[in-house]
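To: structure subgroup
Subject: Chain for Friday's discussion

All,

I'm putting the inputs and outputs inline so they're searchable in the archive.
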Amino acid sequence: MALSRDGSASLFAASAGSTLRLAGYLLLAVALMMLDHHDDWLPRVRSATALAVEPAWRLAGAPARWLGDIRENLAAQSSLRSENRKLRDALLLANVRIARMQALVRQNDQLKRLLDAADSLRMQGQLARVIDIDLDPYRRRLVLNRGARQGVQVGQAVVDAHGVMGQVIEVLPNTAVVLLVTDPSSALPVIDARSGVRAVAYGSGSGDLLNLPDLPINADIKVGDSLLTSGLGGRFPAGFPAATIVTIMADRSGNYLRAAARPAARLDRSDQVLLLRDLAEPMGPPAPVIDAGPPSSLIGPAPAGVDNTSTPQATRNGARR
């Protein structure tokens, strides 16, 4: 029982001490509130205390701020990377569109030149597109996207906006094969636009040159002269640009000249060509007129007022009757 009374007494004493402390705190709080209300010294104390503890407060909050800044930076970098990727894709698409538009402009310009060339020479033509090219040293040929179903025929001349390219040698239902002027088996009749000298330009098979062999030693040709198609042979229309003389030299015998010319057409770059429908007609003298009937010595003199030139025709008519 003694122990129980001692425990109760100590518990009561502790409770009384707590009550006294609480009352003291309350009195202190009330006093501070009254002083703060009636005097301005307490705000100065608070300000000084805040300045004193501000470094500690900033240091305590620094990790949280750093983590927040890191998260914001990572999010900003991710957003910037995504935006940069989208901008690169948009730029690539824009560049592709610009390149396509430039190609269309060039193609449109080529088509306009082709049509203008055909109109200026009053020739009918059919546009075609190059779909394949064979520039082997021994074969210089093109394949076009037009064939027999589109009315293409063997022998049609093919030109681009700059000059003669070649001639159709094979026609399939939907495609046509063109023998280029630089093919070793090609022979193009040409004429010097300045001097009128005629020649035949053969395909060299190597590079982009035409050979003009066996020219007279005194032929009036010069480097830089323009060669046009002459129309001889009826294979190519006359007057189209064919080539430009680039070199002239004597052959080994010294009796003839050899010239090399660069084709006017862009054989390896043109993708739009014109198939000419009007082929050149062979040039030559008119056919002789054969006069049938008896010789004039057997007819005798014509009566006055009658022309002897009409007698053979009358004689033939009488013979038929």
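Points worth raising on Friday:
The chain has four helices and twelve strands.
The two ends are 181 Å apart (CA to CA).

D.
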